[in-house]
Amino acid sequence: MCGISFIFDSVDEILANNPIDLMVTCLNHRGPDAQGSVIKRHAALGHTRLSIVDIKGGSQPMSS
């Protein structure tokens, strides 16, 4: 089981406070093996990962 969190904001001021890290910390029980976050302009994505069958190099969130 994994956890994801997402924030979209048309004003960058809320993302400047970086609430996505707090959201990811609250999801730690859903995936304690890895966690990450990425912020791009008006959107932030956070992810926790439970590694039952671990694929090498499967770190997330991925962005392009």
SSE inventory with pairings:
Elements: E1 3-8, H1 12-16, H2 19-26, E2 34-40, E3 43-49
Antiparallel strand pairs: 1-3, 2-3
Task: Output the keywords.
64 residues; alpha+beta; 3-stranded antiparallel sheet; elongated
Task: Write up this protein.
By secondary structure, this protein is α+β, with helices and mostly antiparallel strands. It has helices spanning 12-16, 19-26; strands spanning 3-8, 34-40, 43-49. The chain has a three-stranded antiparallel beta sheet with strand order 1-3-2, covered by helices on one side. The chain contains two helices and three strands.
- Distance N terminus to C terminus? 24 Å
Provide the spatial order of strands within the biggest beta sheet. Answer: 1-3-2
Helical content stands at 10-25%
Mean pLDDT: 76
Uncertain regions spanning at least 5 consecutive residues = none
Strand content: 25-35%
Largest sheet: 3 strands, antiparallel
Approximate shape:
elongated
* Rg computed from alpha carbons, rounded to a whole number of angstroms: 12 Å
- Counted beta strands: 3
Going by helix content, strand content and strand pairing, the class is alpha+beta
What's this, in brief?
Helix content is 20%, strand content 31%. By secondary structure, it is of the alpha+beta class.
